[in-house]
Amino acid sequence: MTEVAADDGSVSARERTGWVFRNAKILILALILLLIAALLVGVSFAVFSTSSANAGNMFTAGTLTSSNSKDNAAILTAQRMVPGDTTTGTVTISNTGDSKGQFTLTGSTPTNTPGPNGGNLSTVLNLRIVEDPAGAGRVVYDGKLNAMNGPQPLGVWDGGQTHTYEFTVTFPEGGTPSGPTTGDNAYQGSKTEVTYTWNATSVSSATTTTT
Amino acid sequence: MAVHDAGPSPPPPELEGPEPSGPGPPEAGEDEHQSVSERLGVLSNWRVLGTLIAGGLMLAIFLTVAVDSRAYFTAASTSPNNAFGADEVDIRVAVPGEIMDGAGLAPGVSRSGTQTVTSYGHEARLTLDAKGVTDGGLYDVLVVTVKETSPGSVERYNGTLRALHGVDLGVLGAAQAKSFYVTVTWPASQPNPALAGTSISLDFVWSAETVR
Question: Looking at the predicted complex, does its ipTM rise above 0.95?
Fold first, then answer.
């Protein structure tokens, strides 16, 4: 059937549709470019406009810093321990910034120096860490010195918040050794050393909204 | 087929059926092929598809970086050199072998010797035992006395050889030495001809255990 043009010289519907399909590639690419441009730049087609200003909205970045009452120093040490001995040390950690922070405590893998009988001291020493012993007294860790695996969560602290931690290391009594190199005798003359790291990571605060 | 004039919303051509492309009616398969191709339109072109995919990736990267990016503040401090060491118990005797000659014992005869024990380790409680006894009959007869002669002067034990176990000799401080005078006596009050020619051997064992 033959396509008939309108008498008034205008383009027929079929011609318009055909033009659209013939130029579909160009049209779709143009739409994609427009979409990207709108996302990156933003487009406003407003005809009428008005504006008002709320000046003086100032935003400053918060700070997250911490203090350690025994920074870069040992919390506790004990030499010449014998079965039954206990040693205690305390440290105070503070969030000295103004941002909330998630605090954790991580113990390194102990470095053991066995004595003449070959025992690794970190495998027998008990470590107990208590948060705020004079207050709530929450137990953060209670186990062997060498068994603190991974960061121990200490909770989210507000800026200015402070906690004291009491470390207690005990050399448990294993009874009378059955031989000169067995039982507790295995640990004679052995040494161990461990480093504790206090980490803090900022925590997102709720969005501040004013109306 | 009807041809529509310009109207408000003309339906798409394919909805009205196939448009003849030649003098005769098209094959059914050809119509279907053309229809699918038309429906795919620009999407059948790999360049267009590539452009769309690239645009999608750019959009995803933009959204990830500009919208969902999160930064953190961190702080850290360390408490190093938490060191722990176990002590040792180390005692040494001045006389490593026998401390007395026990030959020729008879009722009413005593033998004696001295021993000095020195600590080279942690403070420890010192004890004395008779071990490794090979008894020929004198185990319940012989009497032992142990006297500390230095630094104190005190009798630590006075009893039968059989009962000489875990005798407390006091605390030996670090780097401290104690001297003892040990006497073995066949009491005159226990003459027994049946024991003539018998013997007994034993080890005096000096032990130390940590004290806190």
Answer: no
